[in-house]
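Q: What structure does this chain adopt?
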Amino acid sequence: MKLNLLNTKQGLIPVYDDDFEEKKKLKLGEVYRSNIVLFRNYEFHKKFFALINCAFEYLSEEQTERLGGDNKFGRDNFRKEMLKAAGVSNTYYSVVRNELVVEAKSIAFDKMDNAEFQDVYDAVKNAIFRTVLYGISEDEFNRNLINF
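A:
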C-alpha cells in the first residue's frame, strides 16, 4: 500500500481522498513499517499530461488513427512516442524480433525525483515542437495548453 502523506504538527495525514480510503484499511493500534520518500509534485505531473493531451489535439486525423485513434490508447501511444523522441527511453536487442527495440521509460512517481521529471518535461516539450508543432508558436501553444 502506498499513501501520500502530509507532515503536520499533529502527525502524518493523507493528502488525497484515495490516500484517506487506503489509510482507513489500516487497523488502529497495529504497528506498520513505511518507507518515507519525498512525493513528486502532483500538479507538475498533471501539467505533463496536459502537455501531451494538448499536443495530441494538433495531430491530423491520419496521425491520430496511426497512433490508435482519438482515445486513451492513442493518447498513451503518443505519450510513449514523444518520450522516445525526447530520448527518455531504453533500447535493447530483441532476440525474437531480431532487431533493436526502443521503449519509453516509465514516468511513474517512484521512478524519478522532481528535478529529473523537470528534465523529462523539458525534453518532451522540445520533442513535441520538433516533431508535431514545428509550425506553431510557443505562445499559441501555451494559450491552448491552459485549457487542458
